[in-house]
């Protein structure tokens, strides 16, 4: 029984954080949505931050696993990067980790901020390695900065979500990705094509 | 006297929205920070949404004016786009309009959401025209999609803010911009260099 209640609390919090953000997610809303009693919540978790940390850890783990699956293949580097860009789903909901950065309360919490920071650090490191492989294989110019290109690609995805929410439609996300894929293809060295 | 009180309310709200977001900005916080009395606030504004709309309008007007200044010059298109990317300031605070998209209450308000949407539409239109000029001048390939490249550049800036806040430092923003500038330079047609 206990694990189910615990899991239900984490999953409900994960969804609320994703959809409403941290500040707008009250312990009361978590209880109502999960159907769990207050005593049970405080039996499993010290409080909202503790529960949010576990929920965010779960979102981060899923995100990192998905990125690793896409980026760690034997395909040419440019293809892997373009696949990463085009494999984004659930555009209007955006990134469950990236959206947390809009919440000052998250950035003020060492524990929550560290999860966000380490998630991006992990994906950046994986993506930088892909770019370095692309340089070694002659796809990218030798003076390409792997960390810079990794952050450019991460930014396009995160910013694409911002544009989609601003527009109220996922069209600008699609255009941002198309434009990025075209730039990557244009930057690819002739010798590798 | 009245214009000063009004202006103080708008400026305080603008700052709070930028730093804390819409949900976390209470009428009480606006009163405390501005030193304006409650009666005076409701004399000038119907409520929080009304005041936020005026504050957001002001932020949007400043943002649009700055973008127009950078993008509507006689410089080559690639240079104008790179200037737009590198002229971003106040990285850790981010974009006062873009950050609103993380707030479901803003997206639920027709009036606030329209300001956000129209701001991005305006900058996208201006930037698309720059890309079209670049195509006409032989800087970009004739099959370049002006709206796609415009959204890619907008996304890099908005996403760069997300990465900076996630990292707790503006370094990833700088790297994302550097990577974008390198991609734009690499995509520039040889004939125009």
Automatic annotation (TrEMBL), chains A, B:
UniProt KW Transcription regulation keyword: yes
Coiled coil region boundaries: none
HTH tetR-type domain residues: 3-63
Record-linked InterPro entries: Homeodomain-like_sf, HTH_TetR, Tet_transcr_reg_TetR-rel_C_sf, TetR_C
Keyword Transcription: yes
Pfam families with a match to the protein in the record: TetR_C_13, TetR_N
A GO MF label: DNA binding
DNA-binding region coordinates: 26-45
Protein name: TetR/AcrR family transcriptional regulator
Lineage: Bacteria, Bacillati, Actinomycetota, Actinomycetes, Propionibacteriales
